[in-house]
From TrEMBL:
Protein name: Ribosomal protein eL8/eL30/eS12/Gadd45 domain-containing protein
GO molecular-function terms, A-Z: mRNA 3'-UTR binding; ribonucleoprotein complex binding; selenocysteine insertion sequence binding
Limits of the Ribosomal protein eL8/eL30/eS12/Gadd45 domain: 24-122
Lineage of the species this protein comes from: Eukaryota, Metazoa, Chordata, Craniata, Vertebrata
Gene3D superfamilies: 3.30.1330.30
Single GO BP term: selenocysteine incorporation
PANTHER family with a match to the protein in the record: GH01354P (PTHR13284), SELENOCYSTEINE INSERTION SEQUENCE-BINDING PROTEIN 2 (PTHR13284:SF9)
Taxonomic source organism: Castor canadensis
Record region (Disordered): 149-180
Amino acid sequence: MLSKEVDACVTDLLKELVRFQDRMYQKDPVKAKTKRRLVLGLREVLKHLKLRKLKCIIISPNCEKIQSKGGLDDTLHTIIHYACEQNIPFVFALNRKALGRSLNKAVPVSVVGIFSYDGAQDQFHKMVELTMVARQAYKTMLENMQQDLAGGAGPQIPPSPPTQDPSCSSVDDPPASTGKEPHYIEIWRKHLETYSRCALELEESLEASTSQMMNLNL
């Protein structure tokens, strides 16, 4: 199942970045603090996102719902808005406990920001590839649902667990329910087309990097 593959890929990427960060800390603690690979938590991620320091954001889809002003929904809304504005990929993957474990943390983690994925390009590019496939599958599913609601007889896809957009792939995220969705999910849906441009640019960049590596190997 694609969402499980994305979860596994995100886990591998984060574990590798944590390993690099820990190794740097053992060699030079001062330099390690100035050359962090990761940042955790809503406020810290949002702060560095505003400073345009992040290259990717990982969000747990089972964040607790807080609708008060300045609460979780508002903060995630803002994070997703900045990510789309800056064409930064944001991936919904893993539950909060699993996200924390992938970072060697004993506490649940809701959001992770990545400063640099140098040294873990393979994992990052694989994550991008998987999320682009999921994006297209999710887009097709939405089109089919809209056609069904409109009474159309458009192309159907085989029955399977709903696959989310690449920026929101997770095995823990439930299918569309009858209850009202969290506000940040509604915002994410509105940004689906905007984020597609980012995914396309990442795909072109990935193809260029692969071509360059093949030429170097010749």
